[in-house]
Design brief:
Structural class: alpha+beta
Helix content: 25-40%
Shape: elongated
Radius of gyration: 52 Å
Number of helices: 6
Length: 461
């Protein structure tokens, strides 16, 4: 009898368990709905691009003198002012070059002096020749006068009663000889004048030689001074290639352009050159300041015509680096390059955007660091927003499902009402609700479905 009682109790428990199990419907976790909340807040649609931090100006320091390095006065990270000594070279080679230049200059000046003396000598020869011509011309006048008097005494037979035949011949010969001497003297004058022209040309040539020798001498003096290589401007030393004992070549006298010694960076202004994908180029162009736009014909003029467009072109961006993950640095778009570059690794076109980091903490940023630049291309402030996953479609209309009280009598476990909406921008996390359509209203604090139950008949796409 006792066994039957126990058996009846077990059967009763099974029947009761079966009854309650029939009343409870099991839902696996993946089939359960999820909810979000309607809130008010800001939405920003960012575009990000990566790039390296650069100094505004980078100078490669090369020597203008040649020689062996005897001292390097700086290391990476040293801050230098314009005129500070960076590297010292052995001056022996440049001193020998200076000695040769001084000797060449002295020689050229001596030759110039000789050329000027030759001009003076030619002028003296001209004066002497002119005096000799004047003397001979006077003799010629005397002999011509004597010849005319003698010829006046000749009769028709050529015989003179006053002069003998020998005297007639002598007077005529003397006249011819004096004429010849005058011609020779005049040729000597012309020769002396030509000699003066040659001497003057030699002076001009030698003056040019002296000028060249003087320039060579000045260059050699400068090269000797430049064995102490000075900083061309203020900046920080970012790379040093020079080492004591290294032989370097002048940047002005070598066909290779000289030996690089170090790199000097002007860190007073830092920038990021960010690589922007082609798909984002237009939107970033729309928020860039007018002066940062490419100078393409008509581009800036078109932007200037839209007043609201000009007002929204602040160009302000956010810059972050892994070295300071908690910090956000402010930057401003400085220049957008118009020519795209092929990223061979990804087979896409990218554009360089130069971003000036104008943050007061910019001094913390290390050169060459990888930076992420965030461009805010669209934004909305203090707007009604819903989780992006809450936006659903029903019969071709976009909206959200608002959670309501379930109709227990109808067997509903979760109540919901579809509210059609007109949406604005979305940042992937939140979507702006511009307005609820029809007679519906959507207020902050309302609960909306981000995931509908699996047994719903609505289109959840």
């Amino acid at each position: 009898m006792r066994k039957w009682i126990i058996l009846l109790a077990v059967v009763g428990l099974v029947v009761i368990g079966w009854y309650f199990a029939r009343q409870q419907q099991y839902r696996p976790p993946w089939a359960m709905p999820k909810f979000g909340e309607v809130t008010r807040g800001d939405i920003k649609v960012p575009i990000t691009a990566a790039g390296l931090i650069h100094a505004e100006q980078v100078v490669e320091v090369k020597p203008e003198a040649s020689g062996e390095i005897t001292g390097v006065r700086v290391v990476e990270g040293s801050y230098v002012s314009k005129g500070d000594v960076l590297v010292v070279l052995d001056p022996d080679d440049e001193q020998r070059t200076l000695d040769r230049a001084e000797a060449d200059f002295d020689r050229s000046e001596a030759l110039l002096t000789q050329a000027r003396v030759a001009v003076d000598r030619a002028e003296a020869n001209i004066a002497s020749s002119n005096a000799h011509v004047a003397e001979l011309e006077a003799q010629m006048e005397t002999t011509e006068f004597a010849l005319r008097r003698m010829e006046e005494t000749l009769d028709d037979r050529g015989v003179s009663e006053q002069y003998s035949a020998q005297e007639v011949i002598d007077i005529r010969s003397q006249a011819r000889m004096v004429r010849a001497q005058v011609e020779v003297a005049r040729v000597s004058v012309r020769s002396a004048e030509l000699a003066k022209l040659d001497a003057e040309a030699a002076v001009r040539s030698q003056e040019a030689t002296v000028q060249s020798a003087r320039k060579t001498l000045e260059d050699a003096q400068e090269r000797l001074r430049e064995t102490s290589i000075l900083a061309p401007q203020d900046g920080i030393i970012t790379q040093v290639f020079a080492k004591p004992g290294m032989l370097v070549q002048s940047g002005t006298q070598s066909l290779t352009g000289g030996t690089p010694l170090m790199v000097l960076s002007d860190v007073a202004k830092k920038k990021v050159i960010a690589r922007l994908d082609e798909a984002d180029y237009g939107r970033v162009l729309n928020i860039s300041p007018l002066e940062a736009l490419p100078e393409m014909p008509g581009l800036r003029a078109a932007a200037e015509e839209i007043a609201t467009d000009v007002a929204g072109r602040s160009g302000i961006v956010r810059v972050t680096v892994d070295a300071f993950p908690e910090d956000i640095f402010e930057g401003r778009i400085e220049r957008v390059e118009p020519q795209g570059k092929l990223n061979t690794g990804a087979s896409i076109i990218q554009f360089d955007v130069h971003v000036w980091i104008n943050d007061e903490q910019a001094h913390k940023l290390p050169l060459g660091a990888q930076a992420q630049v965030e461009f805010t291309v669209e934004s909305a402030t203090d707007v009604v927003r819903v989780p992006a996953e809450a936006v659903k479609n029903l019969a071709g209309q976009r909206g959200v499902y608002v959670r309501t009280q379930p109709d227990v009598a109808a067997g509903e476990e979760y109540g919901r009402e579809f509210v059609p909406c007109r949406f604005g921008i979305s940042d992937g996390e939140f979507t702006q609700v511009i307005e609820a359509l029809g007679d519906h209203e959507l207020k902050a604090g309302a609960s909306v479905y981000t995931k509908l139950p699996k047994d719903t008949d609505e289109d959840q796409s």
